[in-house]
Amino acid sequence: MTLIVTGAAGFIGSCVVRQLVAETDELVVSVDALTYAGNPLSLGDAQASPKHRFEHADIRDQPRMQAIFEQYQPRAILHLAAESHVDRSIHGPAEFVSTNVVGTLTLLQVALDYWRGLPEPRRSQFRFQHISTDEVFGSLSATDPAFEETTAYQPNSPYSASKAGSDHLVRAWHHTYGLPTLMTNCSNNYGPYHFPEKLIPLMILNALDGKPLPVYGDGQNVRDWLYVEDHARALRLVLEKGRPGETYNVGGAAERKNIEVVDTLCNILDELHPQSGPHHRLITYVTDRPGHDRRYAINFTKLESELGWRPQENFETGLRKTVQWYLDNPEWVQSVRSGEYRNWLEMNYAGRTQAA
Ligand code: NAD
Ligand code: DAU
């Protein structure tokens, strides 16, 4: 039995692959274009396992994707490849539409052709699992109820609009062609191997370097945080037990204001790495993200009641483990701090003025 995982060298995809290789006997085929966000080192021990293959390929390359399906004859594909950073989507939206919408379309077509040619029972057992985000539902006020699977889509950023586009394609491929799809919409992940353009790893590395901790706007925006290993477990459960055509929300039951997250990080760093502290002095309020969604919150009752999933990690212990991982893994950190990364920091932060 074989699984294909796209975006496997990224933050969440690599966690899924590491878990699958460590805990199952299946062959796992990692597909990744190795953009700035992809790093084969993130695959850890899975890289050298006989149960793992790596295919350096772009999901928009239809002949290549067809060849990969033909060669490996997968029982399912978990599709995580995407451009994933909201701020980058504001600076350059075209790449987001290209990978997230056109790339997903390409994969759906390839998977559909492959699925139609499968004999039973492999045909009815095949799954196309699409990994999406809570951001497609838009922004909540402080008192709004959390997003449910039936909440109307209201994407606000080029990133979330492109993810919404891909979600709609997946839905249509199930409805029109009968492709056995599964979809999950998850809240903010955090944990090891997180690329340091995102809030938590950026703050950890800046703090260790004694650099400013740039909090957008008033710091009161709320996100729901889920430890990445819990997300990977949810994805594996949905793959095995989810009903084709259904979508499942995944969340961490850990809503926090951004400033609370940064505060907690500073406290943990003061304890684990006092030599770069005290860290709170580095907190700097800067110009807000354009169109910044105020609050996300996830209702994951469906996943809990139908499939029995709950997050196992709590936010404070998960955050502590995450900080410790960054302290223990300077080689990985060094490997992602390329010239491209430094250029991005310059582009995203140099123009932001410091609030009084
Ligand atoms: P990431 O940016 O860390 O990794 C994305 C991976 O996709 C990288 O390895 C990159 O090289 C690869 N990739 C990009 N374009 C590609 C292409 N054209 N062909 C092949 N590979 C390509 O992203 P992530 O945080 O791991 O997110 C994975 C998925 O989960 C995304 O679809 C994202 O929208 C979704 N998601 C992320 C979060 C989160 O908090 N990070 C939350 C909910 C959903
Ligand atoms: O909700 C799920 C989404 O979470 C995923 O779909 C995205 O792929 C993922 O990137 C993430 O999106 P966010 O925009 O919420 O994550 P980010 O880490 O970029 O920002 C988290 C919050 O922190 C957000 O309110 C913006 C704020 N922020 C971010 C950065 C990078 C800052 O205040 N300062 C910063 O420097």
Tell me briefly what this model is.
By secondary structure, the protein is α/β, with parallel strands linked by helices. The chain contains 13 helices and twelve strands.
CATH architecture of the domain at 2-191 and 226-253 and 292-314: 3-Layer(aba) Sandwich
How much of the residues is beta strand, in percent?
Answer: 15-25%
Overall shape: globular
Query: Structural class per helix/strand content?
Result: alpha/beta
Ions, cofactors and other bound molecules: nicotinamide-adenine-dinucleotide, 2'deoxy-thymidine-5'-diphospho-alpha-D-glucose
State the end-to-end distance: 59 Å
Low-pLDDT runs: none
CATH topology grouping of the domain at 2-191 and 226-253 and 292-314: Rossmann fold
Order of strands, main sheet, comes to 3-2-1-4-5-6-10
**H/E element order:** EHEEHEHHHEHEEHEEHEEHEHHHH
Give the proportion of residues in helices: 40-55%
What labels describe this entry?
single chain, 356 residues, alpha/beta, Rossmann fold, seven-stranded parallel β-sheet, 44% helix, globular, binds nicotinamide-adenine-dinucleotide, binds 2'deoxy-thymidine-5'-diphospho-alpha-D-glucose
What does this structure look like?
Helices cover 44% and strands 16% of the residues. The protein has 13 helices and twelve strands. The chain is globular, with a radius of gyration of 20 Å. The N and C termini lie far apart (59 Å). Bound molecules: nicotinamide-adenine-dinucleotide and 2'deoxy-thymidine-5'-diphospho-alpha-D-glucose. Residues 6-7, 9-13, 32-35, 37-38, 58-60, 80-84, 99, 103, 131, 133, 163, 186, 188-189, 195 line the site of nicotinamide-adenine-dinucleotide (NAD).
